[in-house]
Amino acid sequence: MTLALETQGLVKTFGGLTATRDLSLKVERGARHALIGPNGAGKTTVINLLTGVLRPNSGRILLEGADITALPAHKRALMGLSRTFQINQLFADLSPLETIALAVSEQRGEGMRWWSSLAREASAAAEIEALLQRFHLADVMNVRTATLPYGKQRLLEIALAIAAKPRVLLLDEPAAGVPEAERHDILAAVASLPRDVSVLLIEHDMDLVFSFADRISVLVNGALFVEGPPDEVARDPRVKAVYLGEATDA
Amino acid sequence: MAWRERTGIAASLHDLSRWRWGEMLFWTLALMAILLLPNRYLILTEIAWLALFVLSLDLILGYAGIISLGHAAFFGVGAYVAGLLALHHFIDEPVLALLVAGLAAMVLGFVTSFLVMRGADLTRLMVTLGIALLLRELANRYSNITGGFDGLQGIVMAPVLGLFEFDLFGKTSFIYCLVVLFLLFLVARRIVHSPFGLSLRAIRNNPLRASAIGIPVNRRLIAIYTIAAFYAGIAGGLSTQSTALASLDVFSFERSADLLLVLVIGGTGYLYGGLIGAVAFKLLQDVLATWTPQYWQFWIGLILVVLVLIGRERLQRWIMWGPERIKGMFDRSGKAAAAGEKSS
Amino acid sequence: MTTFLTILFDGVAYGMLLFVLACGLAVTLGLMNFVNLAHGAFAMAGGYICAILVNRYGVPFFAGLPLAFLVSAAIGFVLERLLYRHLYNRPHLDQVLFTVGLVFMAVAATDYVMGSSQIFINLPPALQGQIDLFGIGIGRYRLLIIVVCGLLTIALQLTLSRTRFGSRLRAAVDDPRAAVGLGINVPWVFALTFAFGSGLAGLGGALGAEILGLDPHFPLKFMIYFLIAVTVGGSSSITGPFLASLLLGIGDVAGKYYVPKLGAFVIYTMMIVILILRPNGLFGRTATR
């Protein structure tokens, strides 16, 4: 069975610093795969390499079996690889309606149309409506993104990634900085993702990780340290050591 | 979808591009100017092609976020091509000549767009300025063709579409320029409210995220840059055709700088900024020129400095309450911003 | 051969003059990420100050030069404290518009006060004419330029790399916030550097009056050259703009001699080609923040 996402010997250096060492990560189809590790382990670098924001020094990246190592970011997105950003990367002057409408029209291949208005077909409008409802954005859909409260912005961040109908979704700390009251919406949105979408989740919130993931990879200093099902990883003493330092007994 | 059936999202989406009564007022006034201001045709014509020129800059600056100091390059190419076509009777009919002029500018725009995509703001500034100055040098050197400092003279314009003679009062010029402006404006309006236009605004806001959702950023920018070059070329052609003159200052840095000022006065990113700015700028220039004929540039500079120091946002809040209301009449985003600020 | 050497010599002189003029701009851009299109106005100020002092008040030329530096630096300091510092965090478009406005004002004001014709500084006899060196006629004035600018460049490089102020400046360029955290008074560093850069521009203007021609439109005519030197040279060091200025100076002089039909065409084309190949300048980042 083809893997949803795979890296082979991926290496990335910044001057003298090796951020990613010979990384061979495998994400199965339909996976709920979490990538965890201490701060500075290089998790966001991996996401940036996977999505094309950074070019690797060596190694390959395969999306559903196809080699995407040389493809620019936007082509990877069109092939079904979508991501959210740890710090919201939204379109400040656009409203949620416009943002989602944009994503939907790009996904439908209508991005270059200059003569028609947005979402002329009923199916497009329906898609947009469904997304806005699902992410509780319908009530603020005409508000300029820059003035939205943080929780709504975070929801929009995720909605935007999902609007592109991805086959593989990379979530970079989706719950980061979200107030307790709004976390539930985020978690529900993540849990309600269709089963055929493969998800790679980066998170520090261990509750979220353990409730969501069926497989966990631990990244330390840019290399895979430990991998396996959640309960195995949770019990592994080396993982605790890496997070908490060399604490031996109690 | 018949209008009765539009509900919810569809209605909101449609609302984004619906004609606002402020817009209709603007064009009605423009049309009425033909009848009501017969002895001001010359300045009205200047306003018309300047508005088109600024509109072209708004497309790349206000919508796509490309700062260009050399937009005059396309204006100049359009101006000289139109002038040469008329002077040597290669193409006598003005509309056809205008199209050719626009296409020439568009080709230049396409070719140079690749240069403009690379590098940060300053590099882009320099490359665009460099191209404009380069053209000026070329025009200067090949003065046997371009007439050098004196420019192209002795152009005699044939009637528009073979029917409408260019008259002494400038009535034909004005109506001609106004019609061209309106038609091209309609196209620009369509573009801006289309998925393509929306993607440009997204690119201006956050190019990183734009490419992450599948937008081929460079390709879109090249497209709009080329279109903007076409518009600027048409504006240049109109200026030559209405004044029967074309000279080196079409390529000048001052021309590009004035252009930025006009857009700043009127506001970027809602298309009417260029049009309103052109009216305001020309009137201002007229007033200043009669007041201090030699040194009006000083006052333009001062206005620019003050405008920037106060800041467009603050200025808009203090002084331009009126115009902001007008902007809200023209454009959805004005209302959205106001609503957003109230609710946050 | 001698023509070639003469051209080389003239080109080097022109290039070094460009460097002195552009140096302040490179530092402002690299340090404060500020696009200062009004830099040429400071050069013009220096040139006119020197001209007035020398022509009208009989001040010796060699005293006029440092005075031009000081007055331009003072003007720069005042403007920085009053106006410029409010715009450091503004988008580049605002900075462009602001400084363009300043240029317009400066040009019109100078036109009003000094008249619009070109102005010449009365040179002392020692600087007029040529001296004969290995059979090549070397213009004395151009020799002076090379010597003065060369010394300045060496002094600048030494200051930057050997002195405390230099290291503070380099720290502030690399990361202003971290520099503040280290106790470096960043606003003072900015103000002094801006003043210094403006002073250098003024000195360059005074030196350049003879070669470039000084009139109220100087800032507009030559702004493009300074910008080219800075964009092509990059703004992360001063060696970049130095080499770029030399390249452009020699290229321009050679171009105007060997291909006079195309004149300044050469310099613009060179710039565009270099920027296509290396958008961040030949040697380093150009306003990447």
Secondary structure layout plus pairing:
The complex is a heterotrimer of chains A (250), B (344) and C (289).
Chain A: E1 5-14, E2 17-23, E3 26-27, E4 32-36, H1 43-51, E5 58-63, E6 66-67, H2 73-78, E7 81-83, H3 96-107, H4 122-134, H5 150-163, E8 168-172, H6 180-191, E9 198-202, H7 206-212, E10 215-220, E11 223-228, H8 230-235, H9 237-244
Parallel strand pairs in A: 4-9, 4-10, 7-8, 8-9
Antiparallel strand pairs in A: 1-2, 1-3, 1-5, 5-6, 10-11
Helix pairs in contact in A: 3-4, 3-5, 5-6
Chain B: H1 8-17, H2 21-36, H3 41-63, H4 72-87, H5 94-117, H6 121-141, H7 143-146, H8 171-192, H9 195-205, H10 207-212, H11 217-243, H12 253-266, H13 272-291, H14 296-310, H15 312-318, H16 321-330, H17 332-343
Helix pairs in contact in B: 2-8, 3-8, 3-11, 3-12, 3-13, 4-5, 4-6, 4-11, 5-6, 5-11, 8-11, 9-11, 12-13, 14-15, 16-17
Chain C: H1 2-32, H2 39-57, H3 61-82, H4 92-114, E1 130-133, E2 136-139, H5 140-162, H6 164-174, H7 176-181, H8 186-212, H9 218-233, H10 239-258, H11 265-277
Antiparallel strand pairs in C: 1-2
Helix pairs in contact in C: 1-5, 1-8, 1-9, 1-10, 2-3, 2-8, 2-9, 3-8, 5-6, 6-8, 9-10, 10-11
Number of helices in the DSSP assignment of chain B:
17
Structural class by SSE content of chain A: alpha/beta
How many β-strands of chain B, per DSSP? 0
Sheet of most strands of chain A: 6 strands, mixed
Give the class of chain B from helix and strand content and strand pairing.
mainly alpha
> What distance separates the N and C termini of chain A?
44 Å
**Cα shape of chain B:** globular
Write down the CATH topology of chain A: Rossmann fold
Number of strands of chain A: 11
List the chains of the largest interface with their residue counts.
Answer: A-B, 57 and 44 residues
What is the H-and-E element order of chain B?
HHHHHHHHHHHHHHHHH
Main sheet: strand order of chain A: 7-8-9-4-10-11
Approximate strand percentage of chain A: 15-25%
Number of separate structural domains of chain A = 1
- Look at the structure and give the CATH class of chain A: Alpha Beta
Radius of gyration of chain A: 19 Å
Order of helices and strands of chain A: EEEEHEEHEHHHEHEHEEHH
